[in-house]
């Protein structure tokens, strides 16, 4: 008897053929093997905010989507930059996988992290959970076909991580109405995660300064919130110095350029990303702690 559990109302038990690129959205029947189950969708969105348990597995916490090919390769979208384009939407190859049909175990061998075994449970219409007993952590994955997945929504829902995908952001232009604002002199920004906190650094080094020689004058934490326009976000910089704060309307120009408009002075600053980090070795997604609409069905 297979160990993985499938919750299926009798009304929806339908036989269907599965392949890599064209699966109709029907319930998997109870006789479906584990290999067909994980291959049944082009993309599995990793719903990280629903993660349960005390542990963490690096390649799972980095992945926004995962894919399991018929030739037993694992692909993942680990970056927001290039989302929907890299690897024709599948992302980059991160390792290989195998299935233990009798015990319902999915074994993933990540190129960097090594091998992990997951107990697979189908928990919904197009949803599975992967539980690793050693790390005591359970991840929830939601399946989509490529043509129905909304990459734009995923991009704008994760601007916090987009900012972390360059070694630094360099100011290349500005439009100033108030020259007295301290931020006028700050030419570099960098964003990263420290523990479970989103951190930024800011520098007054000249724009021509090589990244390795930048002196970071200011430190603090940051957050990003939504506005009524999906392309615009509010960026909050909370400086450690004097507990000061800067608030910007941030517009995403493209994958490597942003526009920051200070909401107090209307000064506008343009920044470009320098040195894209394709696979962040020390990256870690942080749970939002808030209820979100993590549905990426393209309407």
Would you write up a description of this structure?
- The structure is a single chain.
- The chain has 299 residues and is mainly β.
- It has 2 domains: 10-149, Lipocalin, CATH 2.40.128; 158-276, Lipocalin.
- Helix content is 7%, strand content 40%.
- It has an 8-stranded antiparallel barrel. An 8-stranded antiparallel β-barrel has the order 10-11-12-13-14-15-16-17.
- A hairpin with a 4-residue loop joins strand 8 (127-132) and strand 9.
- The chain starts with 33 loop residues before the first helix and ends in a 23-residue tail after the last strand.
- The relative contact order is 0.15.
- Residues 1-28 have low confidence and may be disordered.
CATH fold group of the largest domain: Lipocalin
- Can you count the beta strands? 17
Low-confidence stretches: 1-28
Distance between the termini: 39 Å
How large, in whole angstroms, is the Cα Rg?
Answer: 22 Å
Strand order of the largest sheet: 1-3-4-5-6-7-8-9
* Major sheet size, sense and barrel closure: 8 strands, antiparallel, barrel
What oligomeric arrangement do these chains adopt? Answer: single chain
CATH architecture of the largest domain: Beta Barrel
Mean pLDDT equals: 87
Shape field? elongated
The structure class reads mainly beta
Tell me roughly what share of residues is in helical segments. Answer: under 10%
Order of helices and strands: HEEHEEEEEEEHHEEEEEEEE
What is the CATH first-level class name of the largest domain? Answer: Mainly Beta
Alpha plus pi helix count: 4
The overall number of domains is 2
């Amino acid at each position: 008897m297979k160990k993985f559990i499938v919750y299926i109302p009798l009304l929806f038990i339908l036989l269907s053929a599965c392949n890599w690129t064209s699966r109709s959205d029907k319930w998997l029947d109870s006789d479906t093997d584990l290999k067909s189950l994980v291959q049944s969708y082009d993309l599995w969105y990793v719903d990280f905010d629903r993660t349960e348990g005390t542990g963490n597995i690096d390649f799972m916490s980095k992945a926004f989507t995962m894919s399991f090919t018929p030739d037993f390769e694992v692909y993942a979208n680990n970056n927001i930059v290039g989302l929907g384009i890299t690897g024709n939407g599948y992302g980059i190859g991160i390792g290989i996988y195998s299935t233990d049909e009798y015990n319902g175990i999915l074994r993933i061998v990540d190129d960097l992290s090594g091998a992990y075994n997951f107990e697979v449970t189908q928990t919904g219409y197009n949803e599975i959970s992967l539980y690793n007993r050693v790390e005591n952590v359970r991840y929830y994955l939601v399946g989509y076909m490529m043509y129905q997945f909304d990459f734009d929504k995923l991009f704008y829902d994760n601007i916090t991580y987009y900012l972390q995908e360059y070694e630094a952001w360099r100011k290349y232009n500005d439009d100033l109405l108030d020259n007295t604002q301290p931020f006028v002199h700050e030419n570099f920004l960098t964003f990263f995660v420290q523990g479970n906190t989103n951190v930024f650094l800011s520098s007054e080094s000249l724009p021509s300064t090589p990244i390795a020689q930048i002196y970071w004058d200011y430190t603090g934490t940051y957050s990003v919130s939504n506005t009524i326009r999906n392309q615009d976000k509010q960026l909050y910089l909370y400086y450690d110095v004097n507990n000061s704060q800067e608030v910007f309307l941030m517009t995403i120009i493209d994958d490597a350029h942003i526009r920051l408009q200070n909401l107090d002075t209307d000064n506008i600053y343009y920044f470009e990303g320098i040195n894209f980090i394709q696979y962040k070795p020390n990256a870690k997604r942080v749970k939002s702690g808030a209820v979100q609409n993590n549905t990426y069905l393209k309407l």
